[in-house]
Amino acid sequence: MNEEWCLGCHLCEYFCAFVNSGEKYMPKAFALNRQNVPNITVEEGDRINFAVNCRQCDEPLCKKGCITGAISVKDGVVTIDTEKCVGCFTCILSCPYGAVVPNKEGKAAKKCELCISNGGIPACVTNCPNRAIVLEEVY
Amino acid sequence: MKYVIIGNSAAAVGAIEGIRQVDKDGGIVVISKEKYHTYSRPLISYLIQGKVTEDKMYYRPLSFYEENNCKVMLGEEAVRIIPDKKEVELKGGKSVKYDKLLVATGSKPFIVPTEGLDGVENKFTFMSYDDAKSLEASITPDTRVLIVGAGLIGLKCAEGLNKKVKSITVVDLADRVLSSILDEKGSEIMKKHLENAGIEIILSDSVKAYEKNMATLNSGRKVPFDILVIAIGVRPNVELVKEAGGKVNRGIVTDEFQMTSIKDVYAAGDCTESLDISCNEQKILALLPNAYMQGEVAGKNMAGDKVKYEKAIPMNAIGFFGLHIITAGSYRGESYEFIGENSYKRLFINDNRLVGYIMIGEINRAGIYTSLIKDKVDLSTIDMGLLLQKPNLMMFPKDVRKQKLGVGHR
Ligand SMILES: Cc1cc2nc3c(=O)[nH]c(=O)nc-3n(C[C@H](O)[C@H](O)[C@H](O)COP(=O)(O)OP(=O)(O)OC[C@H]3O[C@@H](n4cnc5c(N)ncnc54)[C@H](O)[C@@H]3O)c2cc1C
Questions:
Q1: Closest CB from B46, B401, B410 relative to A58
Q2: Which residues of chain A make contact with B46, given a CB cutoff of 8 A?
Q3: What is the Å distance from ligand 1's center to B191 Cα?
Q4: DSSP character string of B113-133
Q5: ipTM, interface predicted TM-score of the complex
Q6: Interchain CB contact of A79 with B (< 8 Å)
Q7: What domains sit in chain A, N to C, each tagged with a CATH number?
Q8: Please, what CATH class does the domain formed by B322-405 belong to?
């Protein structure tokens, strides 16, 4: 995430919520009473804006702290099994980036899984008009 | 190398995963009094509530032991550690040899001897899968339940049983609910919320005597019940280490590598004491994330690594009837309170550091506050206005922010 380039336009949030909503048509994902929650959060400042999503930590505190064993790492992606998650939000308590959020029903936690199940290219990356968000492996 | 682990829960699983990060081959033997595949203890209340089915109780997949090449002895109890022989003796006479041993025995319910308690037929504790199963088998829609203890376990039990029984009364000696994690205002909010859900709460009172199906409280009040659940608190299982000559205070004492005072004997989880870095005091932190992380550090060190466990703090995320609480650290120093329509927040700042917080209702991104406590961040580098507002990364200086957004915990 390159904060110098972020316009604070929130498109990443919209696209994230849309592609993870299961809807095919974008307006439907945002129709009344369907407030889909994005897995990315834009922080706006006076001059600076940036988007925050999961860093896919090598030592994920969310996984270590998970009380049910719902969080695992699959091919480098930190993944929440929503079937096993009971929504205690110990992961929200643990994540130093604030990158885990309650789902729209508030019953389970969710987070960025790099659009693995949406074709593999993160929608926030492809739809960022200023290329502030990039997908890079960091060692 | 042969590793032996006593216990089969969060700390033990942390240790197995820790060992396997360092040593793929050494044999691991797990000795477990409980006869179940490793399960998530906190889920027992969700089980009786019907929110979790038995196949979802497990803390790790059923293939876990096999994948990690562990030999598991379910239903076996360790009764003695013999450090000179590097041996663990089991009930029934068998023994198991170790090169490195981990004691991850957790805690047991604390029961205050009370007049007439022995005569109460239907009494339970609420700590284990078996407790949940037998409790579930004993209730009917007509059951009146009395729970002694308005802490996390007692109230989770109340939530689980609610709607499944006729009535639930919770009694606690403290003058407020969840007194170990909340301040007065927070307790008040939760008490109202629990009462709205139909749970009766009696505070500043305790049971003086039981008489079959009637409890007489110190105040003289009488509470009839069909089922009694005792959830006053827990005590660490320290006996094995104590009897082997290891150092024990309230919990088992370890160094920062999780080794006890006995060579090659490690300990982790609810049975130990940790250094709470938010206030620099030794404490028993009976919490699952702490158990897992201590176990993982112990496991790595048992396998020859040298890593420290040095960021322990109390921290809780828990919800009741849809209202969520997240708390962390210790409540001292100067405090800042924020009361919203459906939320409550209080931050505690001491020595120019965030040392604790309470969040009820609005809990989003709380982990950023947790990280400020754990990393002992000097607040003079932080935008205080933003800190007080809500958890965010904008409050950090630019270089820290850039590092967080680009590199992360690697
Ligand atoms: C109802 C309930 C709700 C909870 N909710 C939460 C929550 O929301 N968040 C949270 O952080 N924590 C919660 N906890 C606490 C959490 O469950 C514990 O912190 C965690 O399980 C500790 O793990 P542990 O491995 O140290 O010990 P334990 O889980 O206690 O396991 C110890 C194991 O060792 C076995 N054992 C003991 N002695 C011997 C012996 N001599 N030989 C062989 N085996 C032995 C025991 O049978 C047990 O299986 C909850 C606890 C309860 C009871």
A1: B410
A2: 86
A3: 26
A4: --BTGGG-SSEEE-SSHHHHH
A5: 0.96
A6: no
A7: 1-53+118-139 (no CATH), 56-111 (3.30.70.20)
A8: alpha beta
